[in-house]
C-alpha cells in the first residue's frame, strides 16, 4: 500500500486529520496548524484521469501537432471517446474566443 502524504493546501502543513465529509461527499480534512488561516480543506479528486485539465491541454497540443485520435488516446492512456469529446469542446471554445476578439 502506498501512502500519499496529504498536505494542507493553505500552509503546506502535513499534520492533518480527517474531518468527515462535505455535503457533496468529498473527504474533508482539518489542518492542525494553529496558524493556518483556513483550518479545513477538501482535496479535489477527479474520478476520471481524462477529465483533468493537463490531459485536456495535451489532447489539444497533440491535435495541433497532427496526431490522430487513436494515437492521442494511446499516448495519454485514455479512451478515444474522451479525446473526441475534448476536441469538440475545444472547437466550441475557439469559436467563442474568435467572436469575442472580432467584436472588440
Ligand atoms: Zn493549514
UniProtKB/TrEMBL annotation:
Q: Which UniProt keywords apply?
A: DNA recombination, Transposition
Q: Which InterPro entries match?
A: InsA_HTH_dom (IPR024431), InsA_N_dom_Znf (IPR003220), IS1_transposase_InsA (IPR051252)
Limits of the Insertion element IS1 protein InsA helix-turn-helix domain: 49-89
* Any one of the GO BP annotations: DNA transposition
Residues covered by the InsA N-terminal zinc ribbon domain: 4-33
Main function: Absolutely required for transposition of IS1.
Protein family per UniProt: Belongs to the IS1 elements InsA family.
In Swiss-Prot or TrEMBL terms, this protein is called: Transposase
Native species: Fischerella thermalis CCMEE 5318
